Every structure is written in C-alpha cells, then in structure tokens.
Amino acid sequence: MEKLVSIEIWNDKSYIFPVMDFMDALASQAGADVVRYNRLRFAVCGILRSRIENCYPNDRGKLDVEFYRNKTVFEISIKDKGVPSWQDFSYDKEQIVNDEVALRNYILEQCVDEIGMEKLGKEGQRLYVRQRILDKKEFEEPKPYQEMEALDKNISIRPVQTEQDAIEAIRCIYSEYGYSYSYVNLYYVDSFLRAVKEGQLISFLAVNEHGQTAGHFALSFSKLFQNMPEISSVVIRKEFRGLKLFSKFVDHCIKIGKERHVRALMGQPVAYHTMTQKVLMSTGFTATSLLLSYIASDLESEYNQGKRLDLCAGALILDPDAKSTVYPPHELVPFIRKAYDRLGWEYEICETYEPAEHTQIKIEDSGTLKMTRILINEAGEDLAQFLKETVREAVHKKNEMIELMIRLNSPSCVYGYEAAKDCKFAVSGVIPGGENGDYLMMQFLLGEKIDYDRLELFGQFEELRDDIRRIGL
What we know:
about 475 residues; ten-stranded mixed beta sheet; seven-stranded mixed beta sheet
C-alpha cells in the first residue's frame, strides 16, 4: 500500500481541524463518494480525538497521522509512542439505545470497513481504519443457484482474464456461498479483476467443451504468508462432482506454483471431508495445523449446518533452496521436528531463548469470521498484559475465536508461547514456508471447549491431531 503523506502533530486538540481539513482536500481531489467519505471522516475524527486526549496524560508528545491507499483500499492510521491504547470498539447491540459508548461503537462499525491496532515495539503503536474504494462498475446480484444439465464432462482449466470470466467466477462462488464468503472483494467485477491484475489472485475456471462452468479455484497471495499462496475459493458445481476435479485443481496449482517460482503452497481442506485431505496428501502436502471453529456459522454453505467450520492446513515446499532456522519452546521440539522432517527441506532448530526488548504485535478483528487474529513477531516480557487485554476485548466484541500466530524464527518465541499458555491458548500446529517467517499456531475458543473428536481426518491429519493432544497433556 502506498503512503500518500504523513502529518506530525502534538497531542493538542487544536490540531484535529487542520488534519480533517487536509483529509477533506485529499478526498475531494480523489473524487471520493461524499456519503461514504463522510462516514469515514466521522470515524477518523472520533478516534483521533480519543487518542490525542489519552496518549500522553499530563505531558506533551507527538503523533503521526498517515494516509495510505492502493487501487482497492484507503487507510488512515494514527501512530504514537504514548501510553498503550486498548481502545474498545465492541458493543452490546441491545444497549445502544441506553449506552453512549455502545452507540458510538455501533456507528463506527457502520462507517468503515475495518478498524485495527498494531503494536510496533519501540516504535509505539498505531490505530488504523480502512475503507474499500468502490468503482461504479459492480456486480449485480446473481440469480439463485439453478441446476443445469451437464452437456459434457470433458473439463479443461483456463485462467480468469476478462470481465465475463470474472462474472462466471463470481456466479460460481455465489452458487455455493451466497453473499457470505469472507473475501468480499471477490463479489465485485472491478476488484476481482484488479486482484488478478495486481497478482493478489490467480483465478481459474473449470469449463467443459460446451462452455459450461464446472467450477472455480484460485491461488490467493497474502502479506501474512509471503510467496506462499493458498489454494482457495474452490467451488465445484453439483452437476460436475465425482470427476476428481479437486485433484485436477491441486495439480494445476502445483504446476503454476513451480512455473512462478513460489516458495511454497498452502492448502486448507475442511476437517470433515477426508477426500480433500487425501488429495492434498497424495500430491505431496504435509499436514501442519488444525484450525478449529475457523469459519463463522452464518456462512451460506451446504456444509456448515449452522455451526462453525473446522479446517486443516497443509504445506508443500516448492523452492529446493528453501531453508529455515526456528526457535521452538523446548517441549515443542519433537512436534516441530516431525513436521519439518516431513516437509523435506533444510532447517535448523535452535534452543536459544531471549525476550525481545519490545513486543511487536498486530491485532485484527474480522466481523465476517467473528474472530480476532493476533500476530506476534517479537515477544517481550510485556506481552502477557497485551494478550489478557485482547482476550477481554474479544469477549466484549462477542467474537467466537482468537487465532494467535507466533513467529518461530525469533529467539523470543518461547516467551510468546508461555504468555499464550497462561491465557489458556492451545497449540493447533504450525504454518511453515512463508518468506517472512514460520508461525506457531495457537487458538482460544470463546464459549466452547476444543473438541478434537468431532473432526473427520485422514492420514497425517489424524497423526497431527494425536500429536497436538499429547502437547496438551
């Protein structure tokens, strides 16, 4: 994301209006939609005022207001090195009539697409809001799923390139998930094609000789796991099931991954469909993690039946020169060694433990998934308090799951692990292979116990479940 400008201000409320005037001028020059911009402006003004009032109590200090954008998203962040903020954006919907704070937070949620917070260690912290940039050319609501007669079952795969291709892909996704799919940008033709053009997504259609769409899948790239795309958005229309198309999809992703020299691939089959797990294992993937209660219960799918969905995660290392040095906690060394040996790459396990001078932590909430994600790159001795506050906020926000990722490539990993254990987080596996690091995965389920017995697993995923259970003993 490109930084447009950074404005340095003192913690004085008289600076609010000049900052907002500059933001108004920036929005006007960009031709922003007035209604949507006014909502964003309201949110930024409120958060900026709150931070100015609280970051340096009885003292003078500086804040940086930064503006970012790309072709999809506009972001405004407020960064400072003052008193750590745990601004609570949660609310009880039943109390918004009587509770001023609940009403404010409800309105904020309606104004922006995302609110988040990032701990930057010695660089302080930042609060940010994001709003998606809409294009006038959006996809009209697809018709409900209608079964069709498959005129032939000779399936070939081709990339999504044109506007009509994108419409077919969106219709395919809609046929399975309605409008509940978590990657909302995939419902808009303009943002779909932009993601393809900018390399965030490599999208494919499976079609027969009569031009009927049999399915869709994609390689999705993220900043979280750099150069390690995930096989995602997999939909096979009912009329074309039983043709081993998922196996064909995975083989095609491996072929494309090798051609593009990606470091690794990730696959996340559901934890009740053993056939997809079996396909991953047969193509060389290694079982690395079990992500319980990962997908929200209100996902429109024939699979979830009103319950949160559990996922498996597997990795396949494609770069023959890939290597990694990791610092797992002593009690996890056998577990890590077993997974990394299966991956078949060069790695070194070090048992050197040293806390970071400052915790570096990033916290994000997903209203769609009803979860909080915590990313710990460096763990300092102050981490325990951060985690306790995050759990408290997740409860207030009525989130149902907290996902915790601790970077294994830091000697401070053990301090993150111990702090997480104290907060009742449980190990769920590892995600290795990204260029920016390998991660120890832990979870905290709100309102339910971790139930491994409900999972339907195959092969290595069964072994992985047994190994994770032993960690908790």
